[in-house]
Design a protein that fits this description.
Elements (H helix, E strand, L loop, with lengths): L2 H8 L1 E2 L14 H4 L5 E4 L3 E2 H14 L9 E4 H8 L6 H12 L2 E7 L5 E7 L3 E5 L2 E5 L2 H7 L2 H6 L2 H4 L5 H11 L10 E2 H8 L10 H19 L2 E10 L2 E11 L18 H8 L4 H11 L1 H12 L7 H11 L11 H44 L2 H14 L3 H10 L7 H11 L6
Antiparallel strand pairs: 1-3, 2-5, 4-8, 5-6, 7-8, 9-11, 10-11
Helix pairs in contact: 3-5, 9-11, 13-14, 14-15, 15-16, 16-19
Family: Belongs to the initiator RepB protein family.
InterPro entries: Initiator_Rep_WH1 (IPR000525), WH-like_DNA-bd_sf (IPR036388), WH_DNA-bd_sf (IPR036390)
GO biological process, one term: DNA replication initiation
Length: 427
């Protein structure tokens, strides 16, 4: 293998849509919990891996109820972390996701084995600045798991510069509460890193030097967890690996800075000081560039009798006002801008509230999954019967029979049921 090929492999990784479940079919103690193994065949670049996470995050609330999902193309580019005007790269990445195969292997509630395969995206299209895409119904049901949503954090994933680092983070993060991933055979670990089938990485020496050490260093530097690898040998050869995990006190989950140091820039601080929301600041800078926004800040500061600098700035950015060249905006334009500004603030508040609700719901669903796993088979059957009997309508009962304790339609009833069964379970 050439050095160029080696470098290419270090920037690409097998995309694990559900790291919490990928090893389910490979480790017996996980299979007993009826956990699905969902993974992707082939390799995706780091950009494509991030893109698949953002698309899933955007679609999660209506994953099983909507035929397709939409997101503004420039917003999508900003969240992934590349030039918002580079539609060619976005098209190529969406094409790669549509050509990539997702495979799952699981046990259903009756203990029957189920294997399935589907393209990762059933279709994707770009039209009028909007990206529309869809998952196959079968794959959407498998992806509709609260642990997937809880794992994805676009602020953290933007800090990664290699697919192997992001893959290792995703596969370690769910074990932060237990402190260890448990032992993986090297064969399983190579699959998780997307380097199975490579004779170069059959040697543990090469695997450790080119994959393990760089990926561990990137996780410890750029994420909210710290990991330490440990190995186990058969004779003189390394046979298994695990990672000890602890929280990184230097990087809080929701306060981690963007990879380009955006929140430390003077432009960012100045805009925040004028009352512009974090989301709108990042959108302006992503769409127009920091220098452009700084130019408009300077322009607005030179104007007299401006009642609302933030409102005026939004017009200056959109209309590209320049000193002594563009005319002053009319009173009507300023009034419209102020109206749009108020609407934007309301939208931002609603967005933040929805995000908080999603995080809290994901946390509670994860706790429910742990509680169910701790029950014996007789208790689980009794729990289901008791819960179904408490539901008032056939639609809710049908939804529960299909999705079980992950049923989004019955989320409130599920949380109330377990809180009554085990008081303080969600504290």
């Amino acid at each position: 293998m050439t050095r160029t090929q080696s470098r290419q492999e270090n920037t690409m990784a097998q995309a694990t849509i559900d790291p919490d479940q990928l090893t389910g079919a490979l480790r017996r103690d996980t299979v007993r919990k009826n956990v699905a193994a969902i993974h992707i065949s082939g390799k995706l670049t780091l950009l494509q891996r991030k893109l698949s996470n953002v698309l899933l995050l955007n679609a999660y609330d209506t994953l099983t109820s909507a035929a397709s999902h939409t997101i503004d193309a420039r917003t999508l580019a900003m969240m992934v972390g590349y030039n918002s005007n580079d539609m060619d790269t976005l098209r190529a990445s969406l094409r790669a996701l549509a050509e990539t195969v997702a495979e799952w292997d699981m046990l259903d509630e009756d203990g029957r084995q189920e294997w399935g395969v589907s393209s990762l995206l059933s279709f994707a299209k770009l039209k009028a600045g909007v990206c529309e895409y869809a998952y196959s119904p079968a794959l959407a049901q498998k992806l509709h798991d609260p642990k997937i949503y809880a794992l994805i954090n676009v602020h953290i994933q933007r800090n990664f510069t290699s697919g192997h680092g992001l893959a290792l983070y995703e596969n370690c993060y769910r074990f932060v509460r237990t402190g260890s991933t448990g032992w993986w055979t090297l064969e399983v670990f190579r699959k998780l890193m997307g380097v199975e089938g490579s004779s170069y990485y059959e040697s543990y020496k090469q695997l450790n030097a080119k994959i393990i050490k760089p990926a561990v260093a990137e996780v410890n530097k750029n994420s909210d967890i710290l990991i330490t690898p440990e190995v186990r040998k058969k004779g003189r050869a390394v046979s298994d690996i695990r990672f000890l995990i602890s929280e990184n006190p230097q990087l809080a989950m929701f306060n981690i800075d963007d990879s380009d140091g955006l929140r430390n820039s003077d432009v960012y601080k100045s805009l925040i000081g004028q009352g512009v929301s974090d989301r709108l600041v990042r959108q302006w800078i992503a769409e127009h560039g920091e220098d452009y926004v700084a130019e408009k800040l300077t322009y607005v500061s030179q104007q007299k009798d401006v009642k609302s600098p933030a409102n005026y700035l939004s017009v200056a950015i959109r209309e590209d006002y320049k000193p002594r060249v563009d005319p002053e905006p009319s009173p009507e334009a300023i009034e419209q801008a102020e109206k749009r500004w108020v609407e934007q603030q309301i939208e931002d508040q609603e967005f933040d509230a929805r995000q908080a609700e999603r995080v809290e719901r994901a946390r509670k669903f994860a706790i429910v999954a742990d509680l169910v796993a701790q029950r014996n088979p007789t208790q689980r059957d009794a729990d289901k019967r008791l819960f179904v009997a408490s539901l008032d309508d056939e639609l809710s009962r049908a939804e529960f029979r299909t999705f079980g304790w992950t049923s989004a339609l019955n989320a409130s009833a599920i949380f109330a049921f377990w809180e009554e069964l085990i008081p303080g379970a969600f504290d």
